[in-house]
From TrEMBL:
<dbReference type="GO" id="GO:0009986">
    <property type="term" value="C:cell surface"/>
</dbReference>
<keyword id="KW-0278">Fertilization</keyword>
<feature type="domain" description="Fibronectin type-II">
    <location>
        <begin position="68"/>
        <end position="115"/>
    </location>
</feature>
<keyword id="KW-0677">Repeat</keyword>
<dbReference type="InterPro" id="IPR036943">
    <property type="entry name" value="FN_type2_sf"/>
</dbReference>
<dbReference type="GO" id="GO:0048240">
    <property type="term" value="P:sperm capacitation"/>
</dbReference>
<dbReference type="InterPro" id="IPR000562">
    <property type="entry name" value="FN_type2_dom"/>
</dbReference>
<feature type="domain" description="Fibronectin type-II">
    <location>
        <begin position="23"/>
        <end position="67"/>
    </location>
</feature>
<dbReference type="InterPro" id="IPR013806">
    <property type="entry name" value="Kringle-like"/>
</dbReference>
<dbReference type="GO" id="GO:0007338">
    <property type="term" value="P:single fertilization"/>
</dbReference>
<keyword id="KW-0964">Secreted</keyword>
<dbReference type="Pfam" id="PF00040">
    <property type="entry name" value="fn2"/>
</dbReference>
<dbReference type="GO" id="GO:1902492">
    <property type="term" value="P:positive regulation of sperm capacitation"/>
</dbReference>
<feature type="disulfide bond">
    <location>
        <begin position="73"/>
        <end position="99"/>
    </location>
</feature>
<dbReference type="GO" id="GO:0008201">
    <property type="term" value="F:heparin binding"/>
</dbReference>
<comment type="similarity">
    <text>Belongs to the seminal plasma protein family.</text>
</comment>
<dbReference type="GO" id="GO:0005615">
    <property type="term" value="C:extracellular space"/>
</dbReference>
Length: 115
């Protein structure tokens, strides 16, 4: 890591009363591991803005997410017994289009609404 691009930030992210290395650049790493969970997109928790880890397993290096950082749809993906190559309304109670964040929705169950 180029430590010149990081600043010590006395924020309560993600553990209380610790300092973390915040970067205004760098690339989000997806999926990333944090607190025994796996995240495929930027997270918010109790913060004002969404953030992401810059490591596969969160090690204190993070940044606030920009529009370009949010999870992208993965095509094609498996849902039930079909392969989808674009967003679908299938299975959504409100008829909104959605997509998988992995190729195997049936296994991973990670998704988001399409824009």
């Amino acid at each position: 890591w180029d430590t010149d691009k990081f600043v010590t930030a006395p924020l309560t992210l993600p553990e209380k009363d610790q300092e973390f290395l915040f970067s205004s650049d760098g690339e989000c790493f997806f999926p990333f591991h944090y607190k025994n969970e796996i995240f495929y997109d930027c997270v918010k928790f109790t913060m004002k803005h969404k953030w992401c880890s810059l490591n596969e397993t969160y090690q204190g290096y993070w940044k606030y997410c920009s529009e370009d950082d949010f999870a992208k749809c993965v095509f094609p993906f498996w849902y039930r017994h079909m392969i989808y190559r674009e967003c679908t309304e299938d299975g959504d109670a409100f008829g909104k289009k959605w997509c998988s964040l992995t190729q195997h929705y049936n296994k991973d169950k990670m998704w988001k609404y399409c824009d």
